[in-house]
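Problem 3 from the worked examples.
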Amino acid sequence: MHRFALALLTVTATAATTPALMPWPAQYSSGTGELAIKPDFSVAFANNQNNTLLQEAAQRLKQRLQRQTFISFADSGGGTPTLLVKYQKPLSDVQSLGEDESYRLSITPSGATLTAPTALGVLRGFATFAQLVQRSPNGFAVPVAEIVDSPRFPWRGLMIDVARHFMPIGVIERNLEAMAAVKLNVLHWHLSDNQGFRVESKRYPKLQGQGSDGLFYTQDQVRHIIRFAHDRGIRVVPEFDMPGHTTAWLVGYPELAAGPGPFEIGRTWGIFDPAMDPTREEVYTFLAGFIAEMAALFPDEYFHIGGDEVNGNQWNANQRITAFKREHGMLPAGVPTKAQQDAANEKLQAYFNSRIEPIVRKNSKKMMGWDEILGAELTKSAVIQSWRGQKSLGDAVAQGYQGLLSSGYYLDLAQPARQHYLIDPMLDPKTGQLVSLTAEQQSHILGGEACMWSEYVSQETVDSRIWPRTAAIAERLWSPASVRDVDSMYARLEQVSRNLDSVGVVHNSVYPDMLRRLAPDADLRTLADVVEPVKGYARSSSGIKYTQQTPLTRLVDAARPESDASRHFAADVASQNWKAVRSALTTWKTYHLPNAPGVQEAAPVARNLNSLGAIGLEALAYKKGAKPPPAGWVSSKLIELTAMKKPHAELLLMPVDAVMALVKSLN
């Protein structure tokens, strides 16, 4: 049987029979039987290939399996290994885009063989093997299977913003471990913004000295993270935002600014006025020195300059800059209109980019930036990262640039996994059809990146915003485009989420800890399990004045971006699993919010949960009873339920839609 066809068949199987693999492999053939995982589990390399990096990776695999299975593995000795590894090429000292990540994993009841052209493929095969381990009637085992696998896209990234809220080294390390577990291969490290400059510069020490509150990475720590990532098959691409989002730069070096100082580190969020002055040669001299220093520190061939969201206010207010724009034909004579000023500022930023790119190239790097850097002045080696959508990405690749998609993968917007999962760099989100590009242009789409902007996360909560939803994005970027079954994705995602505990991320463990702090020795989980934070940018317009110092310890911070309990309840309503529906509704109707100060703001949500349970039980009684509901009952209850969808304490009560569906079914 053709293995690809079998892969598509298997991916739609039930959770009980489908391995919790994510990303799903390019080809998966199931067999009969299983390979037992026992205390004598061992990994060996064929032909005595003594590669220290892979030996350490094999040891990490064993440690992970020990955490998954609670089996204490004996030290490897002679005899037949459980997992035999064969590969040809060691890991490059500096990984590059497009390296071979393919592998083949053959599993029989007597042993497994992992074969890959490169050590990078071995790392990907190890990740798959760890996901295959599952409880069986006789203990723990790996199902017999044949897997032939390689990624759909070469660039599969996670952007972590450490500027707005600083993330210590341990946070970065544990998230790199989780990235490797789902085969992501790029950490995009957003290191500077209005709220902080987070890397030590020895050439310009006032950058971190005055722009970081003392929260920054030393160059030795940066080197450690780069090596840590490299050993897990992950490249590290730095982002230093310019010419906007630069307030933290300007605190120590106000002479770079287009407007008058003094400047202070940004404590709130949004688009700020301060920007670099693109008309002064001293700015380019400074940036040439800075880029040279950072290019030497970060070995990856790509260097991200940000380049987004310059509002132009300082440029418009500066008479010398206005004169420069007129002298260079960017701005017409006379009093300009708003549209003319905006167009002139776009040209001025394009001029800035045209000056920065040669500096980046001089340091043997390729320049990256967000959509706003796209312009005729750039060489085709530049990479455009699109936060605006597939059309913007399509425009870039149609002009001959390479590009990445991040629109649709913004983790901070608290959207459900299914929404991220169905966004595809190659598909128009409105039609679901392939974007209108030639095969050559499509080849310029390198992949995508999930983005974790950190306005509303702390080092405690950031994992819960990244995981497990990023695993679904990882599948979209690795697996065949035809692997799109949402039900299968969710069934596997729940298991993968639990499996990720074994690599150290705290997205699961932090949840009950935060709930206990909010309401010690009381039931807050019944409510917390069925609420989600408000979506999109609603927290920024909620009326609460958030700053960099605002504690992120409320129920909205503990609540998960996606409520599994609400999703399961909706499925029970749809499948008419009335026993489970009745049990949930009864629990909600009788729920009492704990009398704890930290959760009283959620009292309206708790009251709505009580009402939701009561309405649902009434609807269920009418549905199961002999008499229909009285006239007007359905319409009046739908009005009540619609009101319950309004957020309170920045929380949404998620089972409302499912109860509305139950009520509507009575018509």
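Problem 4, a separate protein:
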Amino acid sequence: MTTIVLPAPIAPIDAPDGEPSGAESLSDVLLKSAARVAEFADEATALSSPTVFWQGSAASAYVEHARGFARTHEPMGETLRRVARGVDVFAQQLRELQSEHTTVDGDITDYGRERAALLAAVGEASADDADRIGELEERARLLRARRAGIVADITSLQTRVTANEEFLVSLFTSADTASEAAAPDGGVDGDILVLAAGMPTGRGPRAVTEWWAELSEAEQNALIAARPDLIGSADGLPASARDQANRQLLESDLVELTQKETDGVLTADERKRLENARATRDALRTADDYVMPGTDDRPGGSLWLYDPDAFDGDGRVAIAVGDLDTADDVSLQIPGIKTEMSDAPGYVQNAADLYESARYNGDGSSVATMFWLGYNTPEGAVDWDTMTEGRAIDGGERLADAVDGLRASRADDPAHMTAIGHSYGSTTTSYAATDHDLAVDDVALIGSPGAGPAGRASDFSVGDDHVFVGRNSRDAVAFFGDEGWARKDWVEAGLGMDPSSENFGAQRFEAEASNRGDGRNFDDHSRYYDRDSESLYNLGRIVDGDAGAVNEAEQSYDPWWRAAVDPEHDRTPTRDDPARSDTGVNG
């Protein structure tokens, strides 16, 4: 007699206790309290220098007392900020764990239903029906394998729930006395400080990736809460960890600086920081709230870089639409002159539109599109920094480092990656791809005033088959590049070769705006990401890795005896061409 062994049932598991929204409210209260303490410390510092009319032992005693007050309150404010950030980390983890519990609970229910059906089928089966018995044995084998997977998920979930709760307990007990809160280290657990000091920042992003992977989840969460400034900007860490840390920094800035603004004590530098924080908040909301048109797909946003004080307050920021840790296709959009942190909302909308283009007309691959402002862009259309390459040289190195960090964090699951440089950002991208072996698969230069050090597309690390150029024939900025026999090295100025020219040898794609101007103008310079445009359609194909679907354009050329000729100048732009897209979206 054949015995069919059924796997044991699985008992339901309790959901993780707690309300994430309640924890987030507590975090907000703590951050506001931290702002008040910081104000006290600032005031004490400001009052610690008596006027010239007050001298003697009383004045000295006052100064010492005021400075001591400031020294005490500064770490207390940081302690409150750290605890607030930690509570926020706990809340986010709790929300994820509760969502995961819902998934596991559903798996348990489905398993129970399948097991009951198999049990009924075994009871009805005839022992003489060998085929039926074989089928039931196979079902039992698959069900045993499924049970093993669910049990593993349950174990992992329970371990993570315990770790999250222990993290919260450790967070509160590390600063539950006045002396701990006022300590110079802000009450941070000494082991966490040791871990932070152990980050191998000088050994490259791959070493950082490996270091992070060796930490427990509780240690990772503790580091995010204690040192978000370190974690949020560390190349080589998963985008999810950087996002979590940078969101903590952003929320802390918004709460504390808004409180100071309300109290009327905001300094000029703090006001600029608050403006940058608010712009980042608005841009991040655009990414978080974006829903792929016609679907329920909400890819979510990621705050990959947040540095509001960089470059004398212009700031550095990088925000993505989509999951940078898992997307099959990843792009970085590098902006040009006059771009500052306050411009982030508009550029993130461009990233969302590029995401739509890549997905609508793509092969079904997952996508992440990131606006990357990680370098100091020139401040004006007509200034020395715009006409020379110093900012591009520095930016190219920074861009290459950023891409190396993304690559290292996904060494076991590499994405198809594209760098899209617009305007002066194309010169910056050229330096990265020429001087720093930019580790992307494809490069696209749009509205380029010059390709920097590259004389030909073959000078790029990706090879000339993977260098694409989009140039609106009426874009005035795109005429700044050298063409034919006129070269920047003759006059020691300019930004390099026009990459759309035949001498450069890149693959030019159609990029005319449907509403382009009648002659050269600067408005067309900002139309490369317009919805339903030729440019955005083709950029989407490049991001998707489908170079064969790109609509090619003839390269411009210089007959030497007269001005350069652009064959695209007389072509009628295409918009909503069904041959390009069956969705009515060319970008």
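Solution to problem 4. The chain has two domains: 20-261, 301-570. The radius of gyration is 29 Å.
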